[in-house]
Amino acid sequence: xxxxxxxxxxxxxxxxxxxxxxxxxxxxxxxxxxxxxxxxxxxxxxxxxxxxxxxxxxxxxxxxxxxxxxxxxxxxxxxxxxxxxxxxxxxxxxxxxxxxxxxxxxxxxxxxxxxxxxxxxxxxxxxxxxxxxxxxxxxxxxxxxxxxxxxxxxxxxxxxxxxxxxxxxxxxxxxxxxxxxxxxxxxxxxxxxxxxxxxxxxxxxxxxxxxxxxxxxxxxxxxxxxxxxxxxxxxxxxxxxxxxxxxxxxxxxxxxxxxxxxxxxxxxxxxxxxxxxxxxxxxxxxxxxxxxxxxxxxxxxxxxxxxxxxxxxxxxxxxxxxxxxxxxxxxxxxxxxxxxxxxxxxxxxxxxxxxxxxxxxxxxxxxxxxxxxxxxxxxxxxxxxxxxxxxxxxxxxxxxxxxxxxxxxxxxxxxxxxxxxxx
Length: 423
Fold this sequence. Notes:
By secondary structure, the protein is α/β, with parallel strands linked by helices. It is built from eight helices and 33 strands. A seven-stranded mixed β-sheet has the order 5-4-1-6-11-8-12, sandwiched between helices. The N and C termini lie far apart (47 Å). Mean pLDDT is 86; it is low at 91-96.
């Protein structure tokens, strides 16, 4: 029994640009929008598009991801035939081989794909926030008798050099590819979403199997194109965000709380499914003041929350203030603490009267590439003591104590990463 189209979801990403948020979790498992994880979006797109067979390829820090996906119940992907399958790199008898490159990961799972003998294979990445009907893309693929269809997204031409760009004619047939071009000749950026006719993909992967770091954009697609395969650009005009940096991650969360959000989590016809743990309802005390925020289940709010996204089971004690921040589940903000423009991961404790996001701008001493945007970033299971102040562009991870804060402060641009707790 063969499937018409199966999806292969690449979820191995280390997400190094998210700093301490991904030191213990794969990027697709990072919380988003209060109750979701990033991977919920492509998985929900699959089920909403009628795709019931999804292979999820994991590699880096997969524990949280594996537990979240489980047997796929929330996405209606718990099936005897098809459904969701987590595919870690497996050890071969001769050498244990990690996935090296996106296409190598797919190549290593050839047997899995062969077992469904699909007509088409959809390749997805696990780290974008968007809603997309893959069935419409498949119809476009069939109409054009394409061998490969690449989902593309129009970007401002000045930003195009950050992406792989395609050059297509008026029928959307692709004539050229440019990988991160210095002077782009097109503004159609590849979204890293591909539909391949299975035979074409299979032949290409076998032909290129010895290529180091085998990648779709760099190797597989150019190889197919050079060999006369028909490549088309499917233009997508909905909301699509790569939340690969702390700044874009923070912005995408903040956009959810606009009165009419550009990206709507509340649409009936295109639901976003997630793993729901049974949590008690939220409680907002008489002393609380909550405005323009998303508040997850099981939260207890006695202080002030404004313009923020809170996950499940968060406590904001009396007199504490949270503004312009993202706080993930299980975190406790103690009395009198003031949190400004911060991203705080799961199960943290912020001490009494501690102030986050204060002072002047300074560049990060840890990584200017990662810790920018004036954010305070705190990794999971971090404890911040009472009565300290923390500046902007800072990073913390681990159990910190007053001795870690000379003069009671972590200046802007500073960091405290406890040994064995990577950045």
